[in-house]
Amino acid sequence: MIEQHDDGQIRTLKLARPPVNALDSDLIAALDAAVAAAPGEGVRGLILTGAGGRFCAGLDVQQLVALEERGLKDFLQTFVACLRRLAAAPIPIVAAINGHSPAGGAVLALYCDHRIMAAGEFRIGLNEVQVGLCPGPMIHAVLVRCVGARTAGELLPAGALLEASRALEVGLVDELAPLEAVESRAHAWLGRMLALPPQAYAATRAVVRRDARSRTGSACVVAVAAATRGCSAGEPASGSAGRRKTNITSPRSPSRLQLPTVSSQPVCTRTAVATSSGIAS
Fold first, then answer.
1. How many domains are there within the chain?
2. d(C-alpha 257, C-alpha 59), whole Å
3. Does residue 212 sit within a domain?
């Protein structure tokens, strides 16, 4: 479920779960394990991207809606543990965003050190409010550390999904590149970081990422699970009558993901089902 490729001391991790790399418990656990193992295997930098020409469509709704309360808590705990692993990783991680990155896909990217996104029509954002859910304080905090309080205060309540160019303007991503160059640009960024004096770089990086580590913990999981159960179907928008849906399907899971479009913006319906108090899907 995670494809690995090493180039010297830089390792690429590709989410590989067709058709849209939706995050189920197995994929999340595999990513957590891959990030944990890398430093001990001589890796000094990681690139996180998606296989199949896609980045990540968020948490797997098919699995979420089938879970009982205990299973839901375990799922959310697994996701939070993975985010904490990204936040606490002793080596730099760059997100090579090679496709749409709504909700949970955006969260993974936000927990990386640096974000390089494919230019063009792809969108990224935390769109939970558009489907009637609250992203919660943990996701708000990680968004604030990237775009600032004022911009986060505009984007998060609107459930905004931004085109790549706008995401760059507000600081949600750090660079744009042609789709075919996203991974090579990520590799180049890591190369520049690894060329710095290693002890000074590692110590300074630990300082600037301390807030992400401290705000990502398991204490919120019980509250999130309870809130999720209360609004798992989401809250319909008042103007949703004209909403049209585009299905992204696979032979083995025909209803894995639906992307309704509101004002030409793709929104993952119920992909954000697990977000009510602090976990974005």
1. 1
2. 10
3. yes
**Residue 190 belongs to some domain of the structure:** yes
Longest dimension (CA), the chain: 57
Mean pLDDT of residues grouped by 10 in the chain (281 residues)? 97 96 96 98 98 90 82 89 96 97 95 97 91 81 96 96 97 98 98 98 96 75 50 51 35 34 34 38 46
Spatial distance between the Cα atoms of 234 and 269, rounded to a whole number of angstroms: 8
Cis amide leading into 19 (omega within 30): yes
Between CA 13 and CA 200 the distance in angstroms is 26
Residue 124 and residue 137: Cα distance in Å, rounded? Answer: 19
Name the residue type at position 79: F
Query: Which helix (H) or strand (E) is 244 found in, with range?
Result: strand 244-250
Tell me, yes or no, if 128 is annotated catalytic: yes
Strands 93-97, 45-50: pairing is parallel
Closest CA to 256 of 60, 78, 38: 60
Distance separating alpha carbons of residues 188 and 201, to the nearest angstrom: 17
* β-sheet bridge partners, residue 11: 6, 46
Burial group, residue 198, by CB count within 10 angstroms (0-12, 13-18, 19+): exposed
pTM recorded for the entire structure:
0.82
Domain assignment of residue 211, given as a range: 2-266
- Pairing status of strand 175-177 against strand 114-118: parallel
- 122 assigned to some structural domain: yes
Whether residue 17 is contained in a domain is answered as yes
Query: CA 122, CA 100: separation in Å to the nearest integer?
Result: 5
Distance, CA of 153 to CA of 172 (rounded, Å): 13
User: Which among 3, 41, 121, 128 is annotated as catalytic?
Assistant: 128
CATH number of the domain that 223 lies in? 3.90.226.10
DSSP code at position 196: S
For the chain, the helix, strand and coil percentages under 3-state DSSP, each to the nearest 5: 45, 20, 35
